[in-house]
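Subject: Protein record for review, amino acid sequence with backbone structure tokens
Why sent: The fold of this protein is of interest and is recorded here as tokens.
Notation: Tokens come from a learned vocabulary of local backbone shapes, not from coordinates.
Attached in line: The record itself begins immediately under this heading.
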Amino acid sequence: MIPRYSRPEMAKIWEPENKFRKWLDVEIAACEAWAKLGEIPKKSLAAIKKRAKFNIRRIDRIEKTVKHDVIAFLTSVAENVGADSRYIHKGLTSSDILDTALAIQMREAADIIIGDIRELMEVLKDNAYKYKDTLQMGRSHGIHAEPTTFGLTFALWYEEMKRNLGRMETAAETISYGQLSGPVGTFSSLPPFIEKYACRKLGLKPAPVSTQIIQRDRHAEYMAALALIAGAIEKMAVEIRHLQRTEVLEAEEPFEKGQKGSSAMPHKRNPIGSENLSGLARVVRSNAMAALENIPLWHERDISHSSVERIIIPDSTILIDYMLARLTGILRGLQVYPERMKENIDRSYGLFCSQRVLIKLTEKGLSRENAYRLVQQRAMQSWRQRKPFRDLLKKDRLIKKYLSVEEIDALFDLSFYTKNVDYIFKRVFG
């Protein structure tokens, strides 16, 4: 089942019609190359190009008997071409067709995913600037640390997706290699010109060296790029899920008119989209592991990789297309609550300023150890008694020996934490 957020063109890449069309494109390109060498009469080449067709139902029926998909395909094509079909598949082996066609399909899928990433990056950039100055509590280990801005979160995600864009572009280049080199890659049954011509015609590069297959580290790199994209998507999804928790409630997924969150509890607004993305990321990562397992094969080839790839490559590309589209929709409609962010900043009684107080005391002459001890004592008291940290500092006899009331107040100026946001944005967005 194709997820409803996926683009129809991604699903079409992996449908039998497109797969067999790509197989036929490879076969015809090889025939054209043979004709260039005078090994196929021009009249026969014209007949092949005019009549070469296939019937998917016929292929399925033939395969039930021959138990070989490429032979079934070639038989269906031959039934349409007639006598000139004897020139089709000349000197080739099945993997010459399968792997070269698969490279084209994977490149087409990569083009869609690259477009998806660019669309997501636009939304991330828009949100980064929209919330550039929106104060939010920064958290480490889930605990209040120091203030940041919500815009910096989007800038961080933008920068990571920029890296993923580069990875996907590199993976598309890595996979854009074909081979038409015969049974074990030695060109024993056809000259290298056939491969060179066909690959150029198909928009691919010839694999510099191959066995009966294109080596699977290329496919593993592609799948690893998808897994890294899935990881970035899940990172964003997990953050949204945390921010939507009732105790936090700084942001929420879009909740559409008529939408219902629970069959039992009418009040529920659950982050189901983000949870869905977290789950699907596990599938894509698992598929990348399967792709890594496909690298070692017996001698010049076996087909242990084939059954795996029929599942993992279509599934992962379709899923990533879906995940990117769904995340883009979530972030485009994200409901953000700046006032709640301010409330949450106040929940830790100003303790986030502890480092500033610590540093200021060391500047006044205290050792770091003594300063740390003094600040920690008041910080723990603030937390236990739920009293403002600033007030306790002003009452501390030892701290008052080093810091005036005015100096303590100055240490709690929130603008201190956002003074370099513009600098960071310039580094990210230029």
Notes: The chain has a mean pLDDT of 95.
